[in-house]
Write a structure and sequence with these properties.
The protein is about 45% helix and about 10% strand. The chain has a seven-stranded parallel sheet with strand order 2-1-7-6-5-4-3. Helix 8 links the parallel strand 6 and strand 7. Helix 2 runs parallel beside helix 3, helix 3 packs across helix 4 and helix 4 packs parallel to helix 6. The N and C termini lie far apart (about 40 Å).
């Protein structure tokens, strides 16, 4: 049996969607309330992830939000903030803040602006961030999301990073959507205790069965309890049926631009239209799309109790 490295992080984390004020700044109180609802449903916080619109938020805004969320009562040990940036200095600044706040880990994108980057360049980036942070408490989860970054992280690169920094590069989130790749990472590195999270609950059962630790999923924002329940009971009778039910919910949201769809659902079920705000260049769903999404969710008897 593969034994992942110990971590206070849960099996399911949400890249928490960010509510915005009219001036485009994050609304910390709404964000805190959302995070507490997620936590009550068994889900940890991958704040400043893709679905958080992290790259539309300044470093200073993220540093302030992290501080206020912890001040507001969130347990930093259950948090995996996104700290990757194209700039090494920006990544170091965010990562140091997360380590000093005692976060359970950080989720680190590769530098995504330049394309056709060689493994040596990517290794040099992660190595420089690690060396400049210079803290043995640092726990990095590499974030692989080639549909967005257009950068693929090779198995040899991951193996090299784990070998060079075995107590620091301890896991990854794989949002490639390529199960063969996810499985190959688990087979190669899970025996070393490497913790692999799938980037969607669609792959949750396969990930757990292969030796991964869970998922960090967009739809954990809206369907947290059901996803967390499967992660905790993946070996139980009926788990495959439970997976099929999760897939049904995911399929509805995937028909739309994901962030706008998640915000539409939260706005609807919380009766708070402020949640519809989204940062350019992304745009909210049109009124017809919003109605269609909610109608499709009603058809499958979807709800967000306690929101």
């Amino acid at each position: 049996m593969l034994t992942p490295k110990p971590s206070p992080l849960s099996a399911v984390l949400s890249p928490v969607i960010t509510p915005f004020n009219a001036d485009g700044s994050p609304n910390i109180q709404k964000l805190l309330k959302q995070c507490k609802w997620l936590e009550a449903n068994g889900v940890g916080h991958a704040v400043f992830g893709t679905n958080s619109e992290a790259n539309s938020i300044s470093t200073l805004q993220k540093l302030h939000a992290l501080d206020e969320l912890i001040r507001g009562g969130l347990n930093p040990a259950h948090m995996m903030p996104g700290t990757g940036a194209c700039s090494i200095d920006a990544a170091v600044q965010m990562t140091k803040a997360a380590v000093d706040a005692k976060c359970g880990g950080v989720l680190m994108l590769p530098p995504f602006y330049y394309k056709d980057i060689c493994d040596d360049g990517l290794f040099a980036y992660f190595a420089e961030v690690i060396e400049k942070v210079g803290d043995p408490r640092l726990q990095i989860y590499i974030y692989n999301i080639p549909p967005v970054t257009k950068i693929s992280l090779s198995l040899s690169l991951l193996e090299r990073l784990v070998k060079a920094y075995p107590n620091t590069v301890i896991g990854m989130k794989d949002s490639s959507g390529d199960w063969a790749y996810t499985e190959s990472v688990i087979k190669l590195l899970a025996p070393e205790g490497f913790r692999v999270y799938a980037g969607s609950e669609v792959f949750l059962m396969r990930t757990m069965r292969a030796g991964g630790v869970g998922c960090i999923s967009a739809t954990a924002n809206v369907n947290p309890k059901a996803i967390a329940t499967l992660a905790a009971n993946w070996q139980a009778a009926g788990a495959d049926q439970h997976q099929a039910e999760l897939d049904q919910v995911r399929a509805v949201f995937q028909k739309y631009q994901m962030i706008a769809a998640l915000k539409t659902a939260v706005a609807h079920y919380s009766k708070d239209a402020d949640w519809l705000r989204i940062r350019p260049p992304l745009m909210p769903l049109g009124a017809d799309q919003q109605k269609k999404l909610i109608a499709e969710l009603d058809e499958i008897h979807f709800s967000m109790p306690g929101l």
